[in-house]
Amino acid sequence: MLRSMEAAGSSGKGRDRETCTAAFSVSAVHAAVAEGVGSFSGGAAAARIAVDVIPAMVSSLVPERHSGADPADARAASTRHVRMAIRHASGCIAEESSRDAQHRGMSATLAACFLLGGALVVGHAGSSRVYRVREGELTRVTADHGFTVFSAWRAPSTYSVTTAVTRALGIRGHAEADVAIAEALPGDRLILATRGVYNVLPEVDLLRVVNEHPTNVQRAAEQIMAAVAAWPEAEDDRTCVVASLR
Questions:
Q1: Which DSSP letter does residue 200 get?
Q2: pLDDT value at position 40?
Q3: I need a labelling partner for 118 at 20 to 30 A (CA). Which of 19, 49, 58, 101 fits?
Q4: What average pLDDT does the chain have?
Q5: Within 13 Å, how many C-alpha atoms sit on residue 219's CB side?
Q6: 12: left (phi > 0), else alpha (psi -120 to 50), else beta?
Q7: Which residues does 29 contact at the CB level (< 8 Å), separation at least 6?
Q8: C-alpha dihedral, 196 to 201 to 207 to 213, nearest 10°
Q9: Which class in CATH covers the domain with range 5-241?
Q10: Are 44 and 20 within 8 A, CB to CB?
Q11: Contact 87/175 with Cβ under 8 angstroms?
């Protein structure tokens, strides 16, 4: 049974960006990352709403212990509560978008993990990802909501890769998140990353950095950000969280 997580995150601005539109939040029972879409101020606000509102609502909905509850019922309740929290945050983002002209059209992608009833509940929408590291191997837990776009960058033989998202919080009719119980064990580590991380840093390098810091999640997250920043392609805002499950 999973009881807690040690998690730490780090964010970085893309080149020539004044405001970082990616955000994260962590606690002993959750980790979340979000990437804002829209204007710089609107995107930053949307990402912040996502990573703050969702954990707060999950905490208010789910009791600390599912005492006496059937495990299957407890897990079903956990996924239902996470889904409700994501929908609520999506509504908050949409409301802010309609209220403030500077935030018009803002939205956010999301990847979030919660320890509820001894299980790992994963919710995600858009292109933010969750990876699991076990016994030195990396496995992607989530599947992107979107399609890949290749475009020329600086030279005809060099290409950048972006993901056109088809789901995001704050967009009515396109905000539904995937929420499910993910297979996980004590000792597993998680990487939550926005596309500004994995579009630049190959998965083999994500794994290498995490394996180099097996007991220091803060250092691992910071080194991932440093590795991304060293690439000339690092033009997008980005954030990541590294978590160790207990």
A1: T
A2: 65
A3: 49
A4: 89
A5: 9
A6: beta
A7: 4, 5, 114, 115, 116
A8: -80
A9: alpha beta
A10: yes
A11: yes
Give the pLDDT of residue 37: 85
Distances (CA, A) of 95 to 42, 58, 112, 178: 12, 20, 22, 22
Q: Where residue 18 falls among pLDDT bands split at 50, 70, 90? A: confident
User: What span, in angstroms and rounded, lies between the C-alpha atoms of 219 and 212?
Assistant: 10
Predicted TM-score (pTM) above 0.85: yes
Bigger pLDDT: 93 or 72?
Answer: 93
Please tell me the distance from the alpha carbon of residue 192 to that of residue 113, in angstroms, as a whole number: 9
Cα end-to-end distance, the chain, whole Å: 8
**pLDDT confidence band for 154 (50 / 70 / 90):** very low
d(CA 137, CA 128): 20
Tokens of 65: 């212990």
Cβ neighbors of 80 (< 8 A, separation 6 or more) are none
Pick 208 or 150 by higher pLDDT.
208
Element (H, E) at 95: helix 71-99
- Dihedral of CA atoms 121, 114, 59, 25 in degrees, nearest 10, equals -140
